[in-house]
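Annex B. Sample input.
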Amino acid sequence: MNTTKLKLITAGIKDAALIHKLQIEAFTPLYEKYHDDDLSPAKEPIEKIIDRLNQDFSEYKIIIYDGEAVGAVRIVRTKLNPDYDKSIFNDCIAAQNDRQSCHDCNNDAACGCNSNAANECNDDAACSCNSNAACGLTFNAYVACGIAARKYISDPNGIIRRISPICILPKCQNKGIASAALRLIFSEYPDTVLWSLDTILEEAGNCHFYEKLGFVRTSFKLKVNDAMTLVGYEKSCITARRFKDEDADEVVSLITRNFKEINSKDYAPEIIDELIKTHDKSWITKLAASSHTYVFCHNDKIVATGSIASYWGSPTESILLTVFVLPEYHGLGVGRKLIDTLEQDELFKRASRIEIPASITAVNFYRRFGYDFKNGKNELDSEHLYRLEKFNKACL
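Annex B, continued. Sample output.
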């Protein structure tokens, strides 16, 4: 594809009709396949597009190729929701699945409902609903569960951006236009920390397309109807490189902030003071000399650090150390990128066992990546740390 023929134009209210036309033409084939009446952009009224064009946290770009409008993309600025509660979202999904099972059941007694159709049920407990209004919901469960189930919320100053939606005319699909347009968009927003989007699980080609662009599948998974499931994807804008001596002051400041602002919630002040004293510039320089230490950057700012080293000189065991993320970057996928990077290091790949000394604060984070209590001992050691371990199946 000739990228010189591609350009993006910021849309205004005058472009609402064009965007509406592009969405209908681009999404109608998917709508006819999945009949997602409540979510399909092909079914959106033009008034909804006008409302979005007026939002201070949302904008549309019209995709022009060779002088013709061939698509559009909406970009939404968001931030991490301070009230987000993953357990509420998970409970909501479970309740939705229960409602769907009840709806599909032909046995009143088995369902516990007063009607075969769960959306006509007056018994909240039987339908696993939190309210009668939620009982009839068959899509997007977190709408019924409220703001606490949403990981990101719109914000005109947010540094997380969401693609919602992107459309390309059918005649222009599979020609590299969408990927070139997205790469151009990524370059136009260098302050973005994380890009997010949802796509249809059953459309394997779409999933592969986003994965080629660096998006990683998240745990978000939502059944819209019997034929269609939405899944979430995220793309981190954090880059990794090896530690240099001139990084020492910035890395020490990052670690100190974590001790003061994060770990202090789980440790006594005297323990925090001692940690700050021992984790100084000399300490991080010595650690980097005996390990593979990385820093993770957002543009030129160091926002995380982590190390991997041989476990007491063992050629078959390794240890992860100094894993810290700036407090304001927590929850933005930086920790996941950090662990993924360390697990691609040669010291990880050659090890049959990898250990992590985990703080009280971070133990659950590591367990999400498959690390568990060493020798099954769920207890703090003399350094007030949990010892976790993971076995590398490739080396066993």
